[in-house]
Amino acid sequence: MKKYALILFALIISISVSGQYKPWTSSEQPLQEINTLKKQIVKPNFRKKDYLVTDFGAIGDGKTKNTGAFKKAIEKCNVEGGGRVVVPKGIFLTGAIYLKSNVDLHISEGATILFSQDSNDYPIVFTRWEGMECMNYSSLIYAHEEENIAITGKGTLDGNSDNDHWWFWCGAKKYGWNESRPGRQNPARAKLHEYMAQKKDPRERIFGDGYYLRPNFVQPYKSKNFYMADVLVKNSPMWNLNPVLCENVLIERVKVISHGPNNDGFDPEACKNVWIKDSYFDTGDDCIAIKSGRDEDGRGIGKPAENHIIENCEMKDGHGGVVIGSEIAGGAKNIYAIGNVMDSKNLERALRIKTSSNRGGIIENVFFYNTKVGAYKEAAVRFNMHYEKPGNFIPTIRNIWVENLTVEKGGKYAILSDAYESSPVTDFTMVNAKINNVEIPYKVDFLKNVTLKNVTVNGQPLTDLNK
Prior knowledge:
By secondary structure, the protein is mainly β. It is built from five helices and 34 strands.
């Protein structure tokens, strides 16, 4: 009996040790992890059958509203086993589009889906807004618990937003808001925060007309096998591409040009196995921002952002190139950014991790590799644990590896860190980095286990990060 007890104890210890945190010791480790992950992320296959939206009454004159035609085409395609719903050349005005399983919404070259500026064309659905669950306007393209869905083609998705439609709801004068306009999101945003803190049932957090919480553009929710390729996305009301709680997401050769408020390019939220590659971002907010929910909602669901590859993308304007946070209460792990290019006088940071003690969560295993940066404004690498208000959930940031980073025209800092003494940024490694034309090499606090190898700032070797 004693022998079996010892065996059981050893097994428990083995399981415990195998699950322990282990920082990388060389770039070969994350590179191998990337190769393994790529084999798991595959695009869905669709039945070879086309459903032309014009066969369902759609008219591409830019004036006729085609919401019903899109609905009929997608539903018929779904019922019959799937295929492509094809949008031919023309400008097709519509309200919200709901994507069903096994449907590829294919936007032909020369075709534009132009979304209505009338909020009545967007039904109330279960959604997330800035990482908080609620009932609000449907995203312009939405899916819930669907499988094998896609948006493809060399056409355009136009959110049709400007300072007179959607954008001014943010409440900023630079985006068209003034005291004479009724729309402003601030009171509803505060109410949603209040509901979340109270842990009110999300289906009873009802917004919509009169609350001015802008919809996101593309939001598959709790869906599997989402694919997007080749399309141009522009003029979103808010976040552009926002898969939530999805698994197996592949996005390639997509171009996002959208300069409105909170117009993040790509916001995968609490998703697992995500690969975005060969895409272009020129945005009014973060180019790519990886998220896992805000505060109580993020912690309550407890789903991290997990296994993300960001490869061969180009970032122009945007608050950050590759960002983790700030709605990151569920944590993030295994984030790999490789071969990306960034360059803009308006780009503020190349790699940014932003969180707070109101969020909590663990952010670990971030690999930032082979990155070329022309210009940025603030910092090449930025850690911030004091983003927004503090709380009682101290976050963790650990195992951050930056290798082969070149910067031609840096901003104020090369490295900027703002952490907690009780929770320092741990195991930060920088290898083969050349950062030129910065004002101040670094400003940091509370870093632990820092490794710098062949790092130069303004042509001078950087061997440590003393205060």
